[in-house]
Amino acid sequence: MELPLSSNGGSTTKNDNIWRLFREAQQNKLSVSSELLLRIDSMVLTGMIDIKEASELRRLVKDYRIEVADLFTQSLHKEDMELLAELRYLFHKRKKNGYHIIHICTEMEPVVSVGSLASYVTGLSRALQRKGNLVEVILPKYASLDIGDVQGLRETEMEFYSYFNGQLHANRVWTGVVYGIGVTFIQPLHYSSFFSRERIYGYSDDFERFTYFSRASLDYMVKSAKKPDVLHIHNWHTAIVGPLFWDVFVNQGLEATRILLTCQDFDSQCLQQPDKLALCGLDPSRLNRPDRLQDNTKTQLVNILKGGVVYSNKVVIMSSIHSKGTIVHSLSHGLEPTLAIHKDKLVVSPCGIDDSIWDPSKDKFLPENYIADNMKGKAVCKAALQKHLALSKHASTVVCIKHLWKFAIFFGLVRSFPMKKDSSMWCIFSDVSDVDLENLKAAIWVASRRNIQFVFMGASKTPKINRELQLFEEELKDENTRFINKYDEALSHLILAGSDIILCQSFHDAVLQVPLKAVRYGAAPVAITFNDKVFRNILEHDPGKTKFAHYMSTAFANLSLSQALDEIKNKPSHWNMKIMDAMSKDFSWDAECYDIHISAYASIKNL
Prior knowledge:
607 residues; alpha/beta; ten-stranded mixed sheet; seven-stranded mixed sheet; 17% strand
């Protein structure tokens, strides 16, 4: 059954088209500017211009990107010499605005996406560029890249050499534009097998692979005369850039550059034999010390992520619910002594949500859009959801448990009882463990006795869980239960819009961003994991929280499933006010996440 199309009037459609064309025009201008920056890189690599002129031309493009984009939209097809002549004609020095940031990373959505890093790099970069900063990204050229969203992908004319294992090795450079952001892809020639594999991570030589890439990225920057204000590195995979920068590269024209490290978490740190540091040109004897890279527990090894912390000017830890103190003392996985020493450089930031995709006021998958001040469209979406799933239109509460990845699990629930307002509820899990499944089954049995309908959608990555779900379906044999074994993008949006309660694993969800999407679509996030009370206690009592964590702690942290259902039934006005207030909050990448990062960039540039 197809989902219904939007029922908005012609006026709304016309306005939507105007805004869509405007957004496309703005995106095209960012793409032109980014491609010009990549062409300037090519001019440096081929010796057409020197380092000083390249820096001046880059600043011209950055500071006047709209004007430059208007002038050069029809010139990008020209040869480098013709393009250079036009840039020189336009050039004049202006006062610098914003920051120039280069990400050296291993993921970027939608080109290569494994975990939360991919959406973070793209979401933050787009927010930074929208507010006048210049952002570039350097990635390995994986064989598995999804190049469909890379505009103007091209191989540059000149190779460059980078140091590894005692020799210089040639690399090819590819450039393109992703969402208006200039992206450079580095392709090793001699070590071509490093990034020609099926998976991104999980190989025995991952240290060698990403150390090669990190060193090559710095060699490329020097060769192409890039001089960013901030070099932004990520997780252990590019943390080696920190010691490489200060021990090898800082005096090669990068004296004004500073280093910022982002850690999605501290679960993976990469411990290696000290002598392996020599592969990229570092001195093991200099770095294998307690105050540098020596691991705090296994002192015979070096810790690559620890090195990134020690050698970075600032460290941003991504967490939606934990404060700096909690992370340092309880979630640092052996890095507590290091983080305690460097606590002044630690900053905690929440993730953001991509409101170009997840916004009920303009979501193309919804039969009718809505905003906090006018929720009529949400009721329309709820009715459409029930019709699509062949659920009773008289049911008042819908619950779904869903996962937005390829391996997806959705459980949906519709509750039927007399209420002053229709309500619906769903739930998202990244995947389901044995403990989670037992909790979910218990909740479903309790709720089913109150005439609640469920929808299960997708499949787990674990065959055992799939078998358990199949057995549970047979055990229920309930006309109010639906099992759907595939993921549906349009349905995922409709479920969000047609629901009032979102059941999620926790409020710390950097990958699926379930709580963020819940509040954006006017639904209350409720955590039902086995350690739910632990998370609620952290949210309630931990000082120094982010704005997002503070809001969640006051609005939803202590809200159980039963309490939420009772409040919908008995206090509908209070519930409506809570939901409207939640929808009015801005938790996009442009909000708190941007503010924290731009403040971090500013602080290290002033060092």
